[in-house]
Write a structure and sequence with these properties.
Blueprint: E1 24-28, H1 33-43, E2 47-52, E3 68-70, E4 76-80, H2 81-84, E5 91-94, H3 100-112, E6 115-118, H4 132-135, E7 143-148, H5 163-169, H6 172-175, H7 190-213, E8 217-222, H8 223-229, H9 232-241, E9 258-262, E10 267-271, H10 275-285, H11 299-304, H12 306-317, H13 322-331, E11 336-338, H14 342-346, H15 349-353, E12 357-362, E13 365-370, H16 394-397, H17 403-406
Parallel strand pairs: 1-2, 1-6, 2-5, 6-7, 7-8
Antiparallel strand pairs: 3-4, 9-10, 10-11, 12-13
Length: 407
């Protein structure tokens, strides 16, 4: 798919810019949580103007490489892979908000926007007159989303927030890793990404309320709060029992067998979710008797005798290749799959069929990006603007009477 020139299906809605066409977003955020949110809004059709600090070279993640895009002259651009992951469908303007002139620019843009997203420390924008109270005094309909490490209130509200800190403070790392090893963070900034998704949900709810009542509002969202919210079953389990969950590596706290197992040539993932699947799994291994063994016949029993079952399964699975296990499980409708490296992921027919890897044309040259996973039958996502270079649209937009219309 050529994302630089998307061709919507002729049977779909004429809203070629998606469900949020006409919504205007002023993005004062940087790093990952806020930019993830505003990229999602942009993919859904909103017009997003990203404000960057010209004195620092823009968003911090522009320097978080390699890799970087190399331009036609062979020079390293300011488009790092990290930055590009969360900044398509935006126009970048360079504005120094520490100056009176820069503050006036932000007020003018905010007056034309529906949504403002920022992730400064609580109180950090007040000295510039850009905090929620100041900027909405004459803009009662503005939706103002504030993302911070610990939120606008509470004893830690003054502390900075980074994904790793949130994963540690919010408990996720205590659940992740080998039982006898160190706590381990997730392989990507998942606390930031999920916070950005919660922000998107909150903004869409506030937008509906504003469209119904005319009232804007502030959304106060913390990285740590968001991370705690998605502790899911482990968090609820602790609250109801007071028992600390154990790190189990790749195993599941409530389902056995469910995890990563070694075969004769590779590792395989098995997710045996119920007792009938377990019986079919035992049939494949030639261990039908285990499905009738009182220690293993039900999932609660298998949980209780996890170690004894693994002592049998681990050597049994090593008699088979990974492909043989996956084929055998698929034939018996038992969930199983490989652990793929990214080269295999992006070479797969599934990724191609779902448009999960796209190409766009940036000011520094062609760039490869991840696709948006949302598929709408009437208002498809669109890829209109490649991740911008810092201040790329300043001259084009800042002198325009309506910058959002021109963006």
């Amino acid at each position: 798919m050529d994302a630089s020139n998307p061709q919507p299906d002729a049977t779909r809605s004429p809203l070629s810019h998606g469900a949020l066409k006409g919504v205007k977003v002023l993005d004062l955020s940087r790093i990952l949580a806020g930019p993830t949110c505003t990229q999602l809004l942009g993919d859904l059709g909103a017009t997003v103007i990203k404000v960057e600090n010209p004195k620092t070279g823009g968003d911090d993640t522009r320097q978080w490489g390699p890799p970087y895009v190399i331009d036609a002259a062979g020079e390293q651009s300011d488009l790092s892979a990290y930055f590009m992951a969360a900044n398509r469908n935006k126009r970048s303007v360079a504005v120094d908000i520490t100056t009176a002139e820069g503050q006036a620019v932000i007020h003018r843009l905010a007056a034309q926007a529906d949504i403002l997203v920022e992730n400064f420390k609580p109180g950090g924008l007040a000295k510039y007159g850009l905090d929620y109270t100041s900027i909405t005094k004459d803009l009662p309909g503005l939706i103002y989303c504030s993302i911070s490490g610990y939120g606008q209130t509470g004893p830690n509200s003054h502390k900075p927030g980074y994904d790793l800190m949130a994963q540690g403070y919010g408990g996720l790392m205590s659940l992740t890793g080998d039982p006898d090893g160190q706590p381990v963070k997730a392989g990507v900034g998942i606390a930031d990404v999920m916070c950005g998704m919660y922000a998107t949900i909150g903004i869409l709810a506030a937008l509906h309320h504003r469209d119904t009542t005319g009232e804007g509002q502030q959304i106060d969202l913390a990285l740590v709060d968001a991370q705690i919210a998605w502790l899911i079953n482990e968090g609820v389990g602790y609250l109801n029992t007071g028992s600390l969950p154990q790190r189990r590596g790749n195993e599941h706290p409530s389902i056995v067998p469910y995890g990563l197992y070694e075969t004769s040539d590779a590792h395989v993932i098995l997710a045996v979710g119920n007792d009938s699947q377990f019986r079919r799994f035992m049939e494949f291994l030639g261990l039908e008797g285990l499905a009738e063994d009182p220690r293993f016949a039900t999932n609660p029993a298998r949980l209780q005798h996890r170690g004894a079952l693994n002592d049998i399964l681990i050597p049994a699975l090593k008699r088979f290749s990974m492909d043989a296990v996956i084929a055998g499980m698929e034939a018996r409708k038992v969930p199983a799959g490989p652990v793929q490296t990214l080269d295999r992921v992006f070479a797969s027919d599934q990724v191609a069929a779902r448009d999960m890897a796209i190409e766009m044309q940036s000011g520094a040259g062609p760039v490869q990006l991840l696709g948006n996973p949302l598929n709408f039958s009437r208002t498809p996502v669109t890829y209109r603007h490649a991740p911008p270079q810092c201040g790329e649209a300043s001259a084009d937009l800042l002198d325009a009477p309506d910058p959002f219309a021109k963006a």
